[in-house]
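Quick one:
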Amino acid sequence: MRPTARPRLAAGVLALAFVATGCAGGGSGVGSGGVLSSSWGDPQNPLEPANTNEVQGGKVLDMIFRGLKKYDPKTGAATDMLARSIDTSDSRHFTVKVKDGWTFSNGEKVTARSFVDAWNYGASLKNNQKNAYFFGYIEGYDKVHPESGKQSAEALSGLKVVDDHTFTVALAQKFSGFPDTLGYAAFAPLPRAFFTDHAAWLKTPVGNGPYTVEAYTKGSQMNLKKWDAYPGPDKAQNDGVDLKVYTDSNTAYTDLMAGNLDLVDDIPAAQLRNVKTDLGDRYINTPAGIIQTLAFPFYDARWNTPGAEKVRTGLSMAINRKQITDTIFQRTRTPATDWTSPVLGKEGGFKEGLCGHACEYDPAEAKRLVKEGGGIPGGQVKITYNADAGSHREWIDAVCNSVNRALGQDAACVGNPVGTFADFRNQIGQHKMTGPFRAGWQMDYPLIQNFLQPLYYTDASSNDGKWDNAEFDRLVDRANAETDTAKSVATFQQAEEVVRDHMAAIPLWYQNGSAGYSERLSGVELNPFSVPVYNEIKVG
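Output:
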Protein backbone atom coordinates (compact mmCIF):
# COMPACT_ATOMS: atom_id res chain seq x y z
CA MET A 1 0.00 0.00 0.00
CA ARG A 2 2.48 2.75 -0.70
CA PRO A 3 1.22 5.77 -2.15
CA THR A 4 1.65 2.73 -3.22
CA ALA A 5 -1.91 2.53 -3.13
CA ARG A 6 -2.73 -1.03 -2.70
CA PRO A 7 -5.99 -1.42 -4.50
CA ARG A 8 -6.67 -4.89 -3.30
CA LEU A 9 -8.76 -7.56 -4.66
CA ALA A 10 -9.76 -11.04 -4.72
CA ALA A 11 -11.60 -13.25 -7.05
CA GLY A 12 -14.35 -12.90 -4.69
CA VAL A 13 -12.22 -12.05 -1.72
CA LEU A 14 -8.67 -11.24 -2.32
CA ALA A 15 -6.91 -7.99 -2.66
CA LEU A 16 -4.62 -6.31 -5.05
CA ALA A 17 -1.78 -4.06 -4.51
CA PHE A 18 -0.64 -1.61 -7.05
CA VAL A 19 2.70 -0.47 -5.77
CA ALA A 20 3.09 3.16 -6.71
CA THR A 21 6.04 4.83 -5.11
CA GLY A 22 5.75 8.16 -3.47
CA CYS A 23 5.10 9.50 -0.01
CA ALA A 24 2.73 11.94 1.51
CA GLY A 25 3.28 15.21 3.42
CA GLY A 26 6.25 16.83 5.07
CA GLY A 27 7.76 16.96 8.51
CA SER A 28 10.79 16.47 10.67
CA GLY A 29 11.83 15.72 14.23
CA VAL A 30 13.03 12.59 15.96
CA GLY A 31 10.87 10.94 18.57
CA SER A 32 11.48 11.73 22.23
CA GLY A 33 12.50 9.29 24.94
CA GLY A 34 11.30 5.83 23.99
CA VAL A 35 9.20 7.09 21.07
CA LEU A 36 10.53 6.68 17.53
CA SER A 37 9.70 8.71 14.44
CA SER A 38 9.08 7.12 11.04
CA SER A 39 8.29 8.36 7.54
CA TRP A 40 4.71 7.84 6.44
CA GLY A 41 2.00 8.92 4.01
CA ASP A 42 -1.56 10.02 4.73
CA PRO A 43 -4.00 7.08 4.45
CA GLN A 44 -6.18 7.16 1.37
CA ASN A 45 -9.29 6.16 3.34
CA PRO A 46 -10.57 6.26 6.93
CA LEU A 47 -8.94 3.62 9.12
CA GLU A 48 -11.84 1.17 9.07
CA PRO A 49 -10.35 -2.31 8.67
CA ALA A 50 -12.61 -3.19 5.73
CA ASN A 51 -12.08 0.19 4.07
CA THR A 52 -8.29 0.46 4.09
CA ASN A 53 -6.68 -0.95 0.97
CA GLU A 54 -3.35 0.85 0.71
CA VAL A 55 -0.02 0.51 2.44
CA GLN A 56 0.06 3.62 4.60
CA GLY A 57 -3.29 2.99 6.28
CA GLY A 58 -2.41 -0.66 6.52
CA LYS A 59 0.67 0.14 8.59
CA VAL A 60 -1.55 1.74 11.24
CA LEU A 61 -4.11 -1.07 11.23
CA ASP A 62 -1.30 -3.57 11.79
CA MET A 63 -0.32 -1.60 14.90
CA ILE A 64 -3.74 -1.04 16.47
CA PHE A 65 -5.51 -4.33 15.61
CA ARG A 66 -4.98 -8.04 16.09
CA GLY A 67 -7.13 -10.64 14.36
CA LEU A 68 -7.70 -14.36 14.48
CA LYS A 69 -4.38 -14.96 12.76
CA LYS A 70 -1.10 -13.05 12.63
CA TYR A 71 1.58 -13.35 9.98
CA ASP A 72 4.97 -14.24 11.41
CA PRO A 73 7.22 -11.17 10.93
CA LYS A 74 10.09 -13.36 9.76
CA THR A 75 8.48 -16.18 7.78
CA GLY A 76 5.06 -14.76 6.90
CA ALA A 77 3.41 -17.96 8.14
CA ALA A 78 -0.13 -17.54 9.46
CA THR A 79 -0.15 -18.31 13.19
CA ASP A 80 -3.02 -18.19 15.68
CA MET A 81 -3.46 -14.91 17.53
CA LEU A 82 -7.02 -14.51 18.84
CA ALA A 83 -8.01 -17.87 17.36
CA ARG A 84 -7.94 -20.72 19.83
CA SER A 85 -8.84 -23.01 16.96
CA ILE A 86 -10.30 -22.98 13.43
CA ASP A 87 -11.65 -26.40 12.54
CA THR A 88 -13.23 -27.85 9.41
CA SER A 89 -14.01 -31.29 8.04
CA ASP A 90 -14.78 -30.25 4.47
CA SER A 91 -12.90 -26.96 3.76
CA ARG A 92 -16.25 -25.23 3.47
CA HIS A 93 -17.75 -25.16 6.96
CA PHE A 94 -15.50 -23.77 9.72
CA THR A 95 -15.91 -23.52 13.49
CA VAL A 96 -13.91 -20.67 14.99
CA LYS A 97 -13.14 -20.50 18.70
CA VAL A 98 -11.91 -17.15 20.05
CA LYS A 99 -9.46 -16.94 22.95
CA ASP A 100 -10.72 -15.54 26.24
CA GLY A 101 -8.98 -12.64 27.99
CA TRP A 102 -8.71 -10.26 25.03
CA THR A 103 -10.14 -6.74 25.21
CA PHE A 104 -10.18 -3.60 23.10
CA SER A 105 -8.23 -0.63 24.40
CA ASN A 106 -11.48 0.87 25.78
CA GLY A 107 -11.91 -2.16 28.05
CA GLU A 108 -14.64 -3.93 26.05
CA LYS A 109 -14.20 -7.69 25.70
CA VAL A 110 -13.39 -9.16 22.29
CA THR A 111 -15.99 -11.84 21.58
CA ALA A 112 -17.22 -13.92 18.67
CA ARG A 113 -19.75 -11.18 17.95
CA SER A 114 -16.92 -8.65 17.63
CA PHE A 115 -15.81 -10.56 14.53
CA VAL A 116 -19.24 -11.41 13.11
CA ASP A 117 -20.53 -7.85 13.39
CA ALA A 118 -17.35 -6.47 11.84
CA TRP A 119 -17.48 -8.89 8.89
CA ASN A 120 -21.14 -8.19 8.26
CA TYR A 121 -20.44 -4.47 8.29
CA GLY A 122 -17.53 -4.90 5.89
CA ALA A 123 -19.53 -7.01 3.46
CA SER A 124 -22.65 -4.81 3.34
CA LEU A 125 -23.17 -2.88 0.13
CA LYS A 126 -24.61 0.13 1.94
CA ASN A 127 -21.40 0.64 3.92
CA ASN A 128 -19.35 0.95 0.71
CA GLN A 129 -16.23 -0.68 2.13
CA LYS A 130 -13.38 -1.03 -0.36
CA ASN A 131 -12.41 -4.47 0.92
CA ALA A 132 -15.95 -5.87 0.87
CA TYR A 133 -14.93 -8.53 -1.63
CA PHE A 134 -12.73 -10.16 1.01
CA PHE A 135 -15.95 -11.62 2.38
CA GLY A 136 -17.06 -12.84 -1.03
CA TYR A 137 -16.51 -16.52 -0.29
CA ILE A 138 -18.92 -16.49 2.63
CA GLU A 139 -22.47 -17.70 1.96
CA GLY A 140 -24.94 -14.88 1.48
CA TYR A 141 -22.47 -12.38 0.06
CA ASP A 142 -24.53 -12.14 -3.13
CA LYS A 143 -27.47 -11.00 -1.00
CA VAL A 144 -25.66 -8.37 1.11
CA HIS A 145 -23.46 -7.15 -1.73
CA PRO A 146 -25.15 -7.88 -5.09
CA GLU A 147 -23.39 -6.93 -8.31
CA SER A 148 -26.37 -4.74 -9.19
CA GLY A 149 -29.46 -3.48 -7.43
CA LYS A 150 -30.11 -3.17 -3.71
CA GLN A 151 -29.03 -5.67 -1.09
CA SER A 152 -31.74 -8.07 -0.01
CA ALA A 153 -30.19 -9.11 3.31
CA GLU A 154 -28.52 -7.26 6.17
CA ALA A 155 -26.17 -10.04 7.28
CA LEU A 156 -24.16 -12.86 5.73
CA SER A 157 -26.12 -16.09 6.05
CA GLY A 158 -22.84 -17.98 6.38
CA LEU A 159 -21.95 -16.36 9.72
CA LYS A 160 -23.50 -17.60 12.98
CA VAL A 161 -22.62 -16.70 16.58
CA VAL A 162 -22.74 -19.84 18.75
CA ASP A 163 -21.63 -18.33 22.05
CA ASP A 164 -19.34 -15.57 23.34
CA HIS A 165 -16.26 -17.37 22.11
CA THR A 166 -17.50 -19.44 19.17
CA PHE A 167 -18.84 -18.67 15.72
CA THR A 168 -19.25 -20.65 12.50
CA VAL A 169 -18.47 -19.74 8.91
CA ALA A 170 -20.06 -21.40 5.87
CA LEU A 171 -18.44 -20.69 2.52
CA ALA A 172 -20.19 -20.78 -0.83
CA GLN A 173 -17.42 -23.01 -2.19
CA LYS A 174 -14.54 -25.00 -0.78
CA PHE A 175 -11.46 -22.96 0.10
CA SER A 176 -8.89 -24.88 2.10
CA GLY A 177 -6.67 -21.82 2.53
CA PHE A 178 -9.42 -19.70 4.08
CA PRO A 179 -8.02 -19.78 7.65
CA ASP A 180 -4.70 -18.39 6.45
CA THR A 181 -6.40 -15.32 5.00
CA LEU A 182 -7.73 -14.29 8.40
CA GLY A 183 -4.63 -12.36 9.43
CA TYR A 184 -5.49 -9.66 6.93
CA ALA A 185 -6.80 -6.45 8.51
CA ALA A 186 -10.22 -6.62 6.80
CA PHE A 187 -11.05 -9.52 9.14
CA ALA A 188 -10.19 -7.62 12.34
CA PRO A 189 -12.78 -7.45 15.17
CA LEU A 190 -14.56 -4.20 15.98
CA PRO A 191 -15.84 -2.86 19.32
CA ARG A 192 -19.43 -1.71 19.87
CA ALA A 193 -18.21 1.90 19.86
CA PHE A 194 -17.54 1.54 16.15
CA PHE A 195 -21.26 1.04 15.56
CA THR A 196 -22.80 3.21 18.30
CA ASP A 197 -20.70 6.35 17.67
CA HIS A 198 -19.11 5.81 14.30
CA ALA A 199 -18.05 9.43 13.77
CA ALA A 200 -16.19 9.51 17.07
CA TRP A 201 -14.54 6.18 16.34
CA LEU A 202 -13.25 7.45 12.99
CA LYS A 203 -11.64 10.44 14.73
CA THR A 204 -9.93 8.21 17.30
CA PRO A 205 -9.97 4.54 16.24
CA VAL A 206 -10.23 2.00 19.04
CA GLY A 207 -8.60 -1.37 18.41
CA ASN A 208 -7.11 -4.32 20.27
CA GLY A 209 -3.47 -4.14 19.16
CA PRO A 210 -0.26 -3.13 20.95
CA TYR A 211 -0.70 0.59 20.15
CA THR A 212 -3.45 3.18 20.51
CA VAL A 213 -3.98 6.28 18.36
CA GLU A 214 -3.31 9.39 20.43
CA ALA A 215 -3.61 12.12 17.78
CA TYR A 216 -3.68 12.63 14.02
CA THR A 217 -3.19 15.82 12.05
CA LYS A 218 -3.80 15.12 8.37
CA GLY A 219 -0.86 16.15 6.23
CA SER A 220 1.45 16.26 9.25
CA GLN A 221 1.63 13.22 11.52
CA MET A 222 -0.07 10.53 13.57
CA ASN A 223 1.01 9.76 17.13
CA LEU A 224 0.66 6.20 18.38
CA LYS A 225 1.27 5.24 21.99
CA LYS A 226 2.13 1.88 23.49
CA TRP A 227 -0.93 0.29 25.12
CA ASP A 228 0.37 -0.91 28.45
CA ALA A 229 -2.60 -3.22 29.09
CA TYR A 230 -2.31 -5.00 25.74
CA PRO A 231 -2.98 -8.69 26.45
CA GLY A 232 -1.09 -10.17 23.49
CA PRO A 233 2.34 -11.84 23.44
CA ASP A 234 3.82 -9.30 21.00
CA LYS A 235 3.89 -6.21 23.25
CA ALA A 236 5.52 -3.00 21.98
CA GLN A 237 9.22 -2.74 22.87
CA ASN A 238 9.08 1.06 22.59
CA ASP A 239 6.84 3.76 24.08
CA GLY A 240 5.24 4.77 20.81
CA VAL A 241 5.64 5.73 17.16
CA ASP A 242 5.28 9.16 15.57
CA LEU A 243 4.36 8.61 11.92
CA LYS A 244 5.44 11.72 10.01
CA VAL A 245 3.93 12.56 6.64
CA TYR A 246 6.26 13.14 3.68
CA THR A 247 5.41 13.96 0.09
CA ASP A 248 8.94 13.22 -1.11
CA SER A 249 10.93 10.20 -0.02
CA ASN A 250 14.16 12.07 -0.76
CA THR A 251 13.20 14.66 1.86
CA ALA A 252 12.59 11.88 4.37
CA TYR A 253 16.01 10.42 3.60
CA THR A 254 17.63 13.83 4.05
CA ASP A 255 15.91 14.19 7.45
CA LEU A 256 17.18 10.76 8.47
CA MET A 257 20.74 11.71 7.58
CA ALA A 258 20.38 15.03 9.42
CA GLY A 259 19.19 13.33 12.61
CA ASN A 260 15.64 14.66 12.31
CA LEU A 261 14.00 11.27 11.66
CA ASP A 262 14.54 7.78 13.07
CA LEU A 263 13.25 5.50 10.33
CA VAL A 264 12.68 5.61 6.57
CA ASP A 265 10.99 2.49 5.22
CA ASP A 266 11.29 3.20 1.50
CA ILE A 267 14.76 4.21 0.33
CA PRO A 268 14.36 6.43 -2.76
CA ALA A 269 15.97 5.20 -5.99
CA ALA A 270 18.20 8.28 -6.14
CA GLN A 271 19.86 7.24 -2.86
CA LEU A 272 20.44 3.56 -3.59
CA ARG A 273 23.95 4.12 -4.91
CA ASN A 274 25.16 5.71 -1.69
CA VAL A 275 22.87 4.28 1.01
CA LYS A 276 25.27 1.57 2.19
CA THR A 277 28.04 4.13 2.55
CA ASP A 278 25.68 6.48 4.38
CA LEU A 279 24.12 3.97 6.76
CA GLY A 280 26.24 0.83 6.81
CA ASP A 281 24.50 -1.88 8.84
CA ARG A 282 21.55 0.46 9.43
CA TYR A 283 20.42 -0.13 5.83
CA ILE A 284 17.98 -2.99 5.27
CA ASN A 285 17.45 -4.60 1.87
CA THR A 286 15.36 -7.75 2.17
CA PRO A 287 13.02 -9.76 -0.10
CA ALA A 288 9.33 -8.85 0.08
CA GLY A 289 6.13 -10.34 -1.29
CA ILE A 290 5.96 -7.86 -4.17
CA ILE A 291 6.11 -8.44 -7.91
CA GLN A 292 6.07 -5.87 -10.71
CA THR A 293 4.46 -6.73 -14.03
CA LEU A 294 3.20 -5.27 -17.28
CA ALA A 295 -0.52 -5.91 -17.67
CA PHE A 296 -2.48 -5.90 -20.93
CA PRO A 297 -5.93 -4.59 -21.90
CA PHE A 298 -7.59 -7.78 -23.12
CA TYR A 299 -10.80 -5.78 -23.59
CA ASP A 300 -9.00 -4.19 -26.56
CA ALA A 301 -9.46 -6.71 -29.36
CA ARG A 302 -6.09 -5.84 -30.87
CA TRP A 303 -4.33 -7.38 -27.86
CA ASN A 304 -6.66 -10.38 -27.71
CA THR A 305 -6.52 -11.79 -31.23
CA PRO A 306 -5.44 -15.37 -32.05
CA GLY A 307 -1.67 -15.38 -31.99
CA ALA A 308 -1.38 -12.25 -29.85
CA GLU A 309 0.16 -14.36 -27.08
CA LYS A 310 3.23 -14.61 -29.35
CA VAL A 311 3.49 -10.83 -29.44
CA ARG A 312 3.17 -10.61 -25.64
CA THR A 313 5.75 -13.37 -25.18
CA GLY A 314 8.06 -11.72 -27.68
CA LEU A 315 7.87 -8.46 -25.76
CA SER A 316 8.72 -10.33 -22.56
CA MET A 317 11.81 -11.80 -24.22
CA ALA A 318 12.83 -8.35 -25.47
CA ILE A 319 13.29 -7.05 -21.90
CA ASN A 320 16.76 -7.36 -20.38
CA ARG A 321 15.62 -7.72 -16.77
CA LYS A 322 19.06 -8.35 -15.26
CA GLN A 323 20.59 -5.26 -16.81
CA ILE A 324 17.70 -3.06 -15.65
CA THR A 325 17.62 -4.40 -12.09
CA ASP A 326 21.41 -4.14 -11.74
CA THR A 327 21.81 -0.63 -13.12
CA ILE A 328 18.63 1.17 -12.06
CA PHE A 329 17.57 -0.63 -8.92
CA GLN A 330 21.02 -1.48 -7.54
CA ARG A 331 19.99 -5.05 -6.76
CA THR A 332 16.89 -4.07 -4.79
CA ARG A 333 14.96 -5.92 -7.48
CA THR A 334 15.48 -9.45 -8.83
CA PRO A 335 14.48 -10.56 -12.34
CA ALA A 336 11.19 -12.45 -12.13
CA THR A 337 11.03 -16.01 -13.39
CA ASP A 338 7.45 -16.71 -12.32
CA TRP A 339 4.30 -14.76 -11.29
CA THR A 340 4.59 -15.13 -7.50
CA SER A 341 7.39 -14.21 -5.08
CA PRO A 342 10.42 -15.98 -3.60
CA VAL A 343 9.15 -15.17 -0.10
CA LEU A 344 6.56 -17.94 -0.52
CA GLY A 345 9.33 -20.53 -0.64
CA LYS A 346 9.13 -23.72 -2.65
CA GLU A 347 6.58 -25.32 -0.34
CA GLY A 348 4.39 -22.21 -0.54
CA GLY A 349 4.30 -22.17 -4.34
CA PHE A 350 7.29 -20.18 -5.59
CA LYS A 351 8.79 -22.04 -8.52
CA GLU A 352 11.93 -20.47 -9.85
CA GLY A 353 12.11 -20.70 -13.64
CA LEU A 354 8.43 -21.56 -14.17
CA CYS A 355 8.28 -18.84 -16.83
CA GLY A 356 11.12 -20.55 -18.66
CA HIS A 357 12.63 -19.09 -21.82
CA ALA A 358 9.70 -16.66 -22.11
CA CYS A 359 11.26 -14.56 -19.34
CA GLU A 360 14.81 -14.74 -20.65
CA TYR A 361 16.36 -12.00 -22.76
CA ASP A 362 16.56 -13.27 -26.33
CA PRO A 363 16.39 -10.46 -28.94
CA ALA A 364 16.34 -12.73 -31.98
CA GLU A 365 13.50 -14.91 -30.64
CA ALA A 366 11.63 -11.82 -29.44
CA LYS A 367 11.73 -10.31 -32.91
CA ARG A 368 10.60 -13.58 -34.51
CA LEU A 369 7.66 -14.08 -32.14
CA VAL A 370 6.39 -10.51 -32.52
CA LYS A 371 6.43 -10.90 -36.29
CA GLU A 372 4.73 -14.34 -36.16
CA GLY A 373 2.03 -12.96 -33.88
CA GLY A 374 1.06 -10.30 -36.38
CA GLY A 375 3.24 -7.47 -35.13
CA ILE A 376 2.68 -4.88 -32.44
CA PRO A 377 -0.93 -3.61 -32.46
CA GLY A 378 -0.94 -0.14 -33.96
CA GLY A 379 2.76 -0.43 -34.71
CA GLN A 380 3.90 0.88 -31.32
CA VAL A 381 3.84 -0.27 -27.69
CA LYS A 382 2.85 2.54 -25.33
CA ILE A 383 3.46 1.60 -21.70
CA THR A 384 1.18 3.66 -19.47
CA TYR A 385 2.34 4.65 -15.99
CA ASN A 386 1.72 7.34 -13.38
CA ALA A 387 4.23 10.17 -13.59
CA ASP A 388 3.83 11.48 -10.04
CA ALA A 389 6.13 8.77 -8.71
CA GLY A 390 9.45 9.84 -10.16
CA SER A 391 11.09 6.42 -10.21
CA HIS A 392 8.77 4.88 -12.80
CA ARG A 393 9.93 6.87 -15.79
CA GLU A 394 13.51 5.64 -15.48
CA TRP A 395 12.66 1.96 -15.62
CA ILE A 396 9.89 2.38 -18.19
CA ASP A 397 12.40 4.13 -20.48
CA ALA A 398 14.88 1.33 -19.84
CA VAL A 399 12.29 -1.32 -20.72
CA CYS A 400 11.41 0.50 -23.93
CA ASN A 401 15.06 0.97 -24.87
CA SER A 402 15.55 -2.76 -24.42
CA VAL A 403 12.50 -3.57 -26.56
CA ASN A 404 13.56 -1.11 -29.26
CA ARG A 405 17.03 -2.63 -29.47
CA ALA A 406 15.69 -6.17 -29.60
CA LEU A 407 13.16 -5.38 -32.33
CA GLY A 408 15.53 -3.12 -34.24
CA GLN A 409 13.11 -0.18 -34.21
CA ASP A 410 13.83 3.17 -32.58
CA ALA A 411 10.23 3.83 -31.53
CA ALA A 412 8.69 0.39 -31.20
CA CYS A 413 8.12 1.14 -27.52
CA VAL A 414 7.55 4.44 -25.71
CA GLY A 415 6.40 5.48 -22.25
CA ASN A 416 2.93 6.97 -21.86
CA PRO A 417 2.85 8.98 -18.61
CA VAL A 418 -0.38 9.87 -16.82
CA GLY A 419 -0.17 12.82 -14.41
CA THR A 420 -1.20 11.26 -11.10
CA PHE A 421 -1.71 7.85 -9.57
CA ALA A 422 -5.40 8.66 -9.11
CA ASP A 423 -5.82 9.51 -12.81
CA PHE A 424 -3.86 6.42 -13.75
CA ARG A 425 -6.07 4.16 -11.63
CA ASN A 426 -9.23 5.88 -12.92
CA GLN A 427 -8.23 5.21 -16.51
CA ILE A 428 -7.52 1.58 -15.68
CA GLY A 429 -10.85 1.23 -13.89
CA GLN A 430 -12.66 2.76 -16.85
CA HIS A 431 -10.91 0.33 -19.23
CA LYS A 432 -9.22 3.07 -21.21
CA MET A 433 -5.85 1.37 -21.62
CA THR A 434 -4.81 0.81 -25.24
CA GLY A 435 -1.58 -1.00 -24.52
CA PRO A 436 0.45 -2.48 -21.66
CA PHE A 437 0.40 -0.67 -18.34
CA ARG A 438 2.47 -0.70 -15.17
CA ALA A 439 1.13 -3.06 -12.54
CA GLY A 440 2.33 -4.38 -9.22
CA TRP A 441 1.07 -6.73 -6.57
CA GLN A 442 1.93 -6.74 -2.90
CA MET A 443 0.69 -9.85 -1.19
CA ASP A 444 -1.96 -9.63 1.47
CA TYR A 445 -1.15 -13.05 2.87
CA PRO A 446 1.53 -15.55 1.88
CA LEU A 447 -0.49 -17.91 -0.29
CA ILE A 448 0.20 -18.66 -3.96
CA GLN A 449 -3.53 -18.12 -4.47
CA ASN A 450 -3.10 -14.46 -3.53
CA PHE A 451 -0.72 -13.95 -6.47
CA LEU A 452 -2.96 -15.65 -9.03
CA GLN A 453 -6.68 -15.60 -8.34
CA PRO A 454 -7.10 -11.86 -7.62
CA LEU A 455 -5.29 -10.93 -10.81
CA TYR A 456 -6.20 -13.51 -13.43
CA TYR A 457 -9.45 -15.24 -12.46
CA THR A 458 -12.37 -14.23 -14.67
CA ASP A 459 -13.96 -11.01 -13.36
CA ALA A 460 -11.75 -10.96 -10.25
CA SER A 461 -11.65 -7.57 -8.59
CA SER A 462 -8.03 -6.85 -9.57
CA ASN A 463 -8.17 -8.42 -12.99
CA ASP A 464 -7.79 -4.96 -14.51
CA GLY A 465 -6.98 -6.25 -17.98
CA LYS A 466 -10.09 -8.46 -18.06
CA TRP A 467 -8.17 -11.58 -19.04
CA ASP A 468 -10.31 -14.72 -18.89
CA ASN A 469 -9.45 -18.34 -19.41
CA ALA A 470 -11.72 -21.24 -18.53
CA GLU A 471 -8.84 -23.66 -17.95
CA PHE A 472 -7.15 -21.28 -15.51
CA ASP A 473 -10.43 -20.78 -13.61
CA ARG A 474 -11.04 -24.52 -13.45
CA LEU A 475 -7.58 -25.20 -12.03
CA VAL A 476 -7.91 -22.43 -9.43
CA ASP A 477 -11.25 -23.81 -8.28
CA ARG A 478 -9.69 -27.26 -8.02
CA ALA A 479 -6.70 -25.93 -6.08
CA ASN A 480 -8.92 -24.07 -3.62
CA ALA A 481 -10.95 -27.20 -2.93
CA GLU A 482 -7.88 -29.38 -2.39
CA THR A 483 -7.30 -30.08 1.32
CA ASP A 484 -3.77 -31.43 0.86
CA THR A 485 -1.48 -28.37 0.83
CA ALA A 486 1.13 -29.86 -1.49
CA LYS A 487 -1.51 -30.92 -4.01
CA SER A 488 -3.20 -27.53 -3.78
CA VAL A 489 0.09 -25.73 -4.48
CA ALA A 490 0.88 -28.04 -7.40
CA THR A 491 -2.54 -27.35 -8.92
CA PHE A 492 -2.08 -23.62 -8.53
CA GLN A 493 1.23 -23.97 -10.34
CA GLN A 494 -0.58 -25.70 -13.19
CA ALA A 495 -2.87 -22.68 -13.34
CA GLU A 496 0.21 -20.46 -13.36
CA GLU A 497 1.48 -22.36 -16.39
CA VAL A 498 -1.70 -21.33 -18.21
CA VAL A 499 -0.85 -17.70 -17.36
CA ARG A 500 2.61 -18.32 -18.80
CA ASP A 501 1.43 -20.01 -21.99
CA HIS A 502 -0.86 -17.08 -22.75
CA MET A 503 1.46 -14.43 -21.24
CA ALA A 504 -1.51 -12.91 -19.43
CA ALA A 505 0.94 -10.41 -17.93
CA ILE A 506 4.68 -9.94 -18.31
CA PRO A 507 6.53 -10.56 -15.03
CA LEU A 508 9.36 -8.06 -14.62
CA TRP A 509 11.01 -8.34 -11.21
CA TYR A 510 10.52 -9.18 -7.57
CA GLN A 511 10.84 -6.19 -5.28
CA ASN A 512 12.78 -6.01 -2.05
CA GLY A 513 11.75 -4.02 0.96
CA SER A 514 14.26 -1.34 1.94
CA ALA A 515 14.71 0.82 5.01
CA GLY A 516 17.24 2.91 6.85
CA TYR A 517 17.30 3.94 10.50
CA SER A 518 19.10 6.11 13.03
CA GLU A 519 21.62 5.10 15.66
CA ARG A 520 18.90 5.54 18.32
CA LEU A 521 17.14 2.39 17.15
CA SER A 522 17.82 -1.32 17.38
CA GLY A 523 15.87 -4.43 16.45
CA VAL A 524 14.65 -2.89 13.19
CA GLU A 525 13.34 -5.43 10.68
CA LEU A 526 10.95 -5.49 7.74
CA ASN A 527 8.33 -8.23 7.56
CA PRO A 528 7.69 -10.16 4.31
CA PHE A 529 5.17 -7.45 3.35
CA SER A 530 8.01 -4.85 3.41
CA VAL A 531 6.53 -3.09 6.47
CA PRO A 532 8.62 -2.34 9.59
CA VAL A 533 7.84 -4.54 12.59
CA TYR A 534 7.26 -1.47 14.74
CA ASN A 535 6.44 -3.28 17.97
CA GLU A 536 9.85 -4.98 18.03
CA ILE A 537 11.90 -1.79 17.59
CA LYS A 538 13.80 -0.57 20.64
CA VAL A 539 14.78 3.06 21.24
CA GLY A 540 17.97 4.16 22.97
